[in-house]
Amino acid sequence: MGPFVAVLGLFAAVAVLVMFVVFISYVRLWLRAWLSEASVSWLSLVGMSLRKVNPAVIVDSRIMAVKAGLNVSTNELETHYLAGGNVVKVVQALIAANKANIDLSFQQATAIDLAGRDVLDAVQTSVRPKVIDCPDPSKGAPVVAAVAMDGIQLKAKARVTVRTNIKRLVGGATEETIIARVGEGIVTTIGSSQSHKKVLENPDSISKTVLARGLDAGTAFEILSIDIADVDVGENIGAELQIKQAEADKQIAQARAEERRAMARAREAEMVAMVQEMRARVVEAEAEVPKAMAEAFKKGNLGIMDYYRMKNIVADTGMRESISRAEGPGQADDQTQQ
After folding, report:
1. Are 154 and 227 in contact (CB under 8 A)?
2. What tens digit of pLDDT does each residue of 162-185 get?
3. Contacts of 15 (CB under 8 A, 6+ apart)
4. Which of 56, 106, 156, 336 has the fewest CB atoms within 10 Å, i.e. is most exposed?
5. Nearest CA to 238 among 148, 124, 125, 106?
6. CA nearest to 200, candidates 160, 227, 233, 158
7. How many other CB atoms are found less than 10 A from the CB of residue 103?
8. For residue 210, how many other CB atoms are within 10 A of its CB?
9. Exposure pattern of 142-154 as b/e (b: 16+ CB <10 Å)?
């Protein structure tokens, strides 16, 4: 019996030591929760450590929830912790929503947190709206440039006041979508204006038109107001386009003129070739005359006197032509009449 008693004594000593260590480790957390009327059992505290859950985070979060009048169990807090969520921020968001009379359940808060959104910031933005610059100067151009129907460019800058829509926060579009839609609305409104002067006279027409388009549909925000912070006159885009069009038309006309000039030169070359061809045919025809005369002499159709008479006529014609070239057209005609 001696060894058996010794073993039992050893086990008892170890059990007491373990209980003492557990008591020392969790007595402060348990006492803090008990005094705050947010009691957490010893077994739950030990189970949290075994499940690799930080007991201090769970106990502090439960104390905050109970003090604010919220009924959140330790199991729900542990589940969200194990899922990788921020338990403290979720409880703070629930407390802020409860104080502001915003309908936000624990399931919604945890879903928003696990979706990667800052649930506390969402609640705070829902209570205190924030202003978004459109466009965002840190991510691109500082102004939205648009051209009115008279060709004058306007550069506008807007400020959008939004608040978070808790119900659409999960799956809703972000601030970038709001900025893009507002910028598109500004461009459309300015582009549909007959004159840039009307926009400068009534810049609020831009905000009214854009606000009436319901740009917050499908987003995680509700647009409260759109204010035009600044409108400046830019370049005369219409005149620049006309100048470029005129330059293009000029180049097209020059190209067509060059084409016609080239065609004329080609036609001239063709005519010169045709003249040379005709002259060659004339020379060829004149070469046939002596053959024809010789044939006429052989057949007796042409006598020697006829031949000399023809030569005299040719010589007389050549003399008259030389005289007319020497004296001029008028004198040649007078001599011919005489």
Report:
1. no
2. 888 888 887 788 888 888 888 888
3. none
4. 336
5. 148
6. 233
7. 9
8. 24
9. ebbbbbbeebbbb
By three-state DSSP, how is residue 154 classified? strand
Residues 124-155 have pLDDT tens digits of 888 888 898 888 888 878 888 888 888 888 89
Burial annotation 18-45 (CB, 10 A radius, 16+ → b, else e): eeeeeeeebeebbeebeebebebeeebb
pTM for the predicted model, two decimal places: 0.58
Choice between 96 and 35, residue whose per-residue pLDDT is larger? 96
Per-residue pLDDT band for 15 (boundaries 50, 70, 90) equals low
Annotate 39-73 with DSSP letters as a single string: ---HHHHHHHHHTT--HHHHHHHHHHHHHTT----
Task: With cut-offs at 50, 70 and 90, classify the pLDDT of residue 252.
Answer: very high
Q: Which residue(s) pair with 219 in the sheet?
A: 173
Q: What is the largest CA-CA distance in the chain?
A: 182
For the chain, give the mean pLDDT.
81
Task: Identify whether the C-beta of residue 33 lies closer than 8 Å to the C-beta of residue 62.
Answer: yes
Strand partners, 223: 162
- What are the distances in angstroms from CA 178 to CA 124, 171, 184, 189? 19, 14, 10, 16
What the block records as the tokens of 4 is 């058996």
Q: Which residue has tokens 């060894």?
A: 3
